[in-house]
Amino acid sequence: xxxxxxxxxxxxxxxxxxxxxxxxxxxxxxxxxxxxxxxxxxxxxxxxxxxxxxxxxxxxxxxxxxxxxxxxxxxxxxxxxxxxxxxxxxxxxxxxxxxxxxxxxxxxxxxxxxxxxxxxxxxxxxxxxxxxxxxxxxxxxxxxxxxxxxxxxxxxxxxxxxxxxxxxxxxxxxxx
Length: 176
Fold this sequence. Notes:
Elements: H1 10-59, E1 71-74, E2 79-88, H2 101-116, E3 125-135, E4 142-152, H3 153-157, H4 160-166, H5 172-175
Antiparallel strand pairs: 1-2, 2-3, 3-4
């Protein structure tokens, strides 16, 4: 009778290698996807921070020549691959679309409150849409981050005389 020597057969070794290769490919794909997700999350975070800073500059009246469709990038801040696009007003073609029901209700409430307080001088506000675009790490497309806010109209139109009328105790010259 033939005696079998201890150890693995060639077939057993090959099956183990195929299983090991399959697990390695799956782990590599999962790692690549998690790195891409982390990179996109980082880019979203940077876009949110840049958008917030840009809106604050607009609110302070520091962005001249602001018009609907105004665009540029953040290369002066070291983020040249991040671009911005401004949409001004409710009818902007660069907006996030038509008003939803909640927004329409809030605007109607604000309009009625403004009418009730006609004696008090309230600054007019303009709706702003700011879209930040940046490269995607998943493919060769671009991702977008969009925010929407209401900004005092004097800041958009650079009307420092109106600013002085609304807040005479402040010094608009420091802003200019």
